[in-house]
User: Which sequence fits this backbone?
């Protein structure tokens, strides 16, 4: 999230409104109180910009989330739904919920009005879930040749990396196509030479908790190729598994 830009935009659009960063340091949610409950307890309205919110519950307040920009992954109790731009979702009192987005803007209507006293963080561990397909990683034996094809011939928009490798990513908004030197991947994950050598790609999913997902998969006797680890060069914490035919799958979440 571009915190400075978000705050500046809110200050210009809603002068004098209270802006809350959650948490104060490195916020993953920014809230602008447009019409707070202190003016009238029956209801309140706010604008929220969300990357991620912690799981919480309201004993009295019902909320409506109306997405005005981007898409929001909303977890309510044990359900998950994608709320697209122009759509809304209703959260009833007593329902545990959290949300994930990518600098997603939404209007929040609360009835009765939102108060700190009615906002309770939960310690319940949510069931690990796959949230979205993050990217397709193409494994390259000749990285420079592959890079030149996708960059110079197909002219895909480059987001990060260069022709020297071992990693480059092309982006079409939320759609990511990555190039990864096969030898580098196998060395990094300490894989045996006979694991997945015929593969040309890795399917990458974003999950809500890599570590909880690993526990779940181990209990299901899934083949774990490499346990959950931080990959600072990629900016993620990731787990690598194999499907029944040996294809490599990466499950990751952004490093905090």
Assistant:
């Amino acid at each position: 999230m571009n915190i400075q830009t978000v705050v500046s935009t809110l200050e210009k659009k809603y002068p004098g409104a209270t802006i809350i960063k959650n948490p104060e340091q490195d916020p993953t949610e920014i809230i602008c109180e447009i019409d707070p409950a202190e003016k009238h307890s029956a209801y309140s309205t706010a604008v929220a910009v969300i990357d991620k919110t912690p799981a919480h519950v309201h004993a009295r307040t019902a909320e409506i989330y109306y997405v005005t920009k981007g898409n929001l992954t909303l977890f309510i109790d044990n359900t998950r739904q994608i709320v697209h731009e122009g759509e809304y979702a209703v959260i009833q009192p007593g329902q545990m919920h959290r949300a994930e987005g990518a600098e997603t803007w939404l209007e929040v209507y609360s009835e009765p009005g939102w108060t700190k006293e009615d906002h309770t963080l939960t310690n319940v561990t949510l069931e690990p879930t796959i949230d979205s397909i993050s990217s397709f990683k193409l494994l390259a034996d000749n990285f420079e040749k592959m890079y030149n094809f996708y960059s110079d011939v197909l002219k895909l928009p480059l987001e990060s990396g260069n022709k020297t490798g071992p990693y480059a990513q092309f982006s079409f908004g939320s759609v990511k196509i990555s190039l990864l030197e096969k030898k580098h991947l196998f060395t990094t994950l300490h894989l045996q030479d006979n694991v997945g050598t015929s593969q040309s790609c890795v399917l990458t999913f974003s999950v809500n908790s890599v570590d909880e997902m690993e526990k779940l998969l181990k209990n299901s006797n899934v083949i774990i190729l490499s346990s959950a680890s931080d990959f600072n060069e990629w900016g993620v914490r990731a787990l690598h598994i194999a499907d029944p035919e040996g294809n490599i799958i990466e499950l990751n979440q952004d490093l905090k």
User: Anything to note?
Assistant: The domain at 3-123 is CATH 2.60.120.10 (Jelly Rolls). The radius of gyration is 21 Å. The longest strand covers residues 97-111.
